[in-house]
Structures are given as structure tokens and as C-alpha cells.
Amino acid sequence: MSLSSIISWFKPRELIFFDLLEKSAGNLCDAIGFFYKELETNDPARWDDLKRRMKDYEHAGDAINKEVIDKLDQTFVTPIERDDILRLSHSLDDVVDHLDTVSQKIVLYQVGHIKPFVLEIARLLYDGASELMYLTQSIRNMSNVKEIRKRIRLVQELESKIDGIYNMSLAELFATCTDAIELIKWKGILENLEDASNSIDIVAKMVGSTITKNA
Fold first, then answer.
1. Residue-by-residue DSSP string for 96-124
2. Contact status, residue 186 vs residue 177, Cβ threshold 8 Å
3. Buried b vs exposed e over 166-175: b needs ≥16 C-beta within 10 Å?
4. What single-letter DSSP state applies at residue 78?
5. Are 85 and 21 in contact (CB under 8 A)?
6. pLDDT band at 2; cut points 50, 70, 90
7. Is the pTM of this model over 0.85?
8. Which CATH class is domain 13-209?
9. Which helix (H) or strand (E) holds 184?
10. Which ranges of 42-114 would DSSP assign to H, the alpha helix?
11. What ranges do the domains of the chain cover?
């Protein structure tokens, strides 16, 4: 038996769920950080690598989510409600899935340079993911409810800003884009970015609900 297996065996099993949720949030932050950094280069020569690397993050998120499900099947008593653990895990993974879809579309649609509104949304998504890292870690002890509520409100404000950019950008596309194919491309990318924003907001609300039930 390996050393890591021995450590895992002696570690209180209920703490594993906090570890896994934080690991998922970490994967999400790494994915969004890489996504934003690569888009910011605005170099079409990098899009194939963006697609490949984002798929790696997506696979990593799926693996963590599967481990959460496996541990739930093996654990009788959990530190917070089983449904909350499962929903948090799925929602964290959903954010990475949406960004992976955007990366796939950038390559599939043969996108050249990234439009400014996409970069602006990507930056706000990165800010939101950073807040999720704090919020996910806060579930472990729930010791500072006031600060947690503040961070949740920040995520909601970021989601509102992204909604505003989405609506304005979509209106601009319909008003100025004369190429129907280009319109469809950017509309699809915008929708997936908004889906990612909505998933971040969902995670924040779930943390708030979990804190209310357990703090």
C-alpha cells in the first residue's frame, strides 16, 4: 500500500468531501485563469493549445466529481447534507464545462481575434472564480458568516455585470453584424460565457444555503 493510500485510510472520511470540493474549486480557478490569460494574448495561433488544455481541465473536473460520487456511496454520515455536496460538486464542474465548450467553439468556428466584450466577461469570470475559492473553503468551518455573505454578494454583483455586458453585446451584434454566420458564432460564444457566469452564481447561492442550514 502506498504512503498516500495509508494517509487517506487514517484521515477522517468526512473531511474528504471538503478536500474534494476545494480541489474542484482550485481546478476551476486554474481553468479560468488559463482561459483568460490565453484569450488576453489575442493570438489565434494559440487557440488549438487553448482547446487542448481546457479539455484537460474539463477531464480533471469530471474525475473530481466522480470521486465525490464514489465517496458519497461509501460514506454513511457526511459533514453537510449529501445533496448539498453533490450539487456543489456538479455546479463547480459545470463552470469548467462551459468554458471548455467556448474553447471548442473558438477552434470549431475558426475565430480569429477575440472581441473586447469576450475578454471583459472572461476577466469578470476570473474574479468570480476567485471568490468561489474562498466560499468553498469557508464551508469547512463556517466561522465568518458575515464575510461569507459579503463574498456571495460580490459574486452576485459580478454576475449582474456580466448579464449587462451580455445584453449590450448581443444588441450590438444584431445591430451591426451583417454576416449571419459571424453573428451565430459570437452569439453562441456569448451564451456559453453567460452560462458559466450563471453556474458561478449558482455555486455562491448554494454555499449561502449550506451556511444557513449548518452555521
1. HHHHHHHHHHHHHTT--SPPHHHHHHHHH
2. yes
3. beebbeebee
4. -
5. yes
6. low
7. yes
8. mainly alpha
9. helix 180-214
10. 47-74, 82-108
11. 13-209
